[in-house]
Amino acid sequence: MITDPDAEFTQLVRRQARFVFRVAFAVLLNAHDAEDAVQETFLKLFRNRGWQNVENERAFLARVAWRVSVDLRPRRTPDPSLPLEQELAEVWPSPLPTPEHALVSANEHAMIHSLVDALPEDLRVPLVLSTFDELSSREIGEILNLPDGTVRTRLQRARQMLREKLTKRRASTEEAHHA
Amino acid sequence: MLDRDELDRLLDAALATYAVPKHDSGLERRVLERIGAARTPVQHRWLWAAGIPALAASLLLLFAVFAPWRHTSHELQKIDPPMHPLVAEAPHPARPRHIAHTMAHVETTGVRRAPRPGITPKLDVFPTPVPLSGQERALVRYVTEAPEAQRNDLMEAQQRSIAPLGIAAISIPPIEPPNKGSE
Description:
The complex is a heterodimer. Chain A is mainly alpha-helical. In chain A, about 75% of the residues lie in helices and about 0% in strands. Chain A has two domains: about 5-75, Orthogonal Bundle (Rna Polymerase Sigma Factor, Chain: A); about 85-180, Winged helix-like DNA-binding domain superfamily/Winged helix DNA-binding domain (Arc Repressor Mutant, subunit A, Orthogonal Bundle), CATH 1.10.10.10. Chain A contains nine helices and no strands. In chain A, helix 1 packs antiparallel against helix 2 and helix 1 crosses helix 3. The termini of chain A are far apart. Chain B is an all-alpha fold. Chain B contains seven helices and no strands. Chain B starts with a helix and ends in a 21-residue tail after the last helix.
């Protein structure tokens, strides 16, 4: 059994750093900024010893990482007059050149990742949190300060948007192949 | 066209690899290094927090031990030894005003200051001899020139004047009321 707090914290970092990185990336959409958020998250936990005696370690870490990432996120207000597609493309540009580029390279996962990146943050973060480590909608709601029903609604909307976009992209790709 | 289940499976598979850092990315190592770097200044801060008061206390102690006023006090004691009781009780007729003021200040405040080199106090313990007055000269002449019998009479007269006088008890008779007939 590990009793040294420093050794215990080191084990926590080794165990959860990648998870924290994913949470941060879901907000910041940038690997460098996400790593900064990871370091800031663990530094904050180390300083105030807030990581000790928590019931749900992952939910707690996700909440701290989400708050840190939101603080690090560059401030930008989307224009409500823009249509959703245009707004998403402007506010959350894909890390890849275009979704078509991902299709051309036959990398469907990368293309879907770019579609996830293009989702609004209030849909993307619950979706990302729901995909790893079996975080329930109630736990996601506790992390994001949202009611359980709101989380479930946002998850359904996020998946529906991804389905529609993916179907549309695949159809356009097949047409391009036939032509 | 993919049906809904196939789309969900594809989405789940893609989401499972979303934002996953590579295993050899060194993320954990960099996080621990950053924490280690942040922890070192904290320890240094504790050292400073404990060291500065200790240093200040040491300096204060040294200053108290080797303070200038302590040497001044010793020097003053050397140049101003305790006076003989008779001398100390004697008045200081010729003490200069500024020295008297200094001594009064020492007595009232308890602070003994080193005198400045130019005004070292020179206490006038023994008065300067002065010439005899006319009465004194006449007395000396009478004592040396008068006959032996007259000198003895003079000494007896001095002894008599010094001896205590006998005073008889005073009796005051009561005052009697005046007679009506005599009025």
